[in-house]
LSU ribosomal protein L21p (Postechiella marina), 182 residues
Amino acid sequence: MNWCILIPLLVGAICAILGYLLGKLSGGNDEECQGEVATLKAELDACKGRELALTTSMSTLESDLKSVKDSLATSFSAASVALVSFDAAAAKAIFGKKVKENDLTLVEGIGPKIQELFHNHGVNTWKALSECTVEKCQTILNSGGDRFKIHKPGTWPKQAELAYQGKWEALLKWQDELDGGK
């Protein structure tokens, strides 16, 4: 047999086998790739679902936290109110007259008509008046007409705070320095 023919046939067969094997290894299987893509898509969808659940949980927790904060603020405020009690005897000893709790006329510059005006606007206590801004006080005065616009409520919230806190000596001393609440 002639070796000249057998060598090219053998080389051709070996090349064919190597080409087939290289094609299988490098090209892969489309079904495998599609399966892998489907798995990755499923994992991505699962991650998106967990993200949505976490976002919802976080919103719920933030809402719960806000409720707890509001509840604590309300409780603290109620506790603060309970801590400051009105002592009529101490007020009478300092002012030399009977003082009624939350009587806004105790504030220098506020008379009965202005007190009535403030009551009509929901400001019924020293604490409520102490939490008002001077601008809000002026707005309430302006709503009563021209005769109330001349009053200057610049010190009223601070005076009301001293009354609410029962700091009678400090309030009287300050009022002695004031001229009609100014």
Observations:
- The chain has two domains: 31-83, 88-177.
- Residues 88-177 form one domain.
- The mean pLDDT is 87.
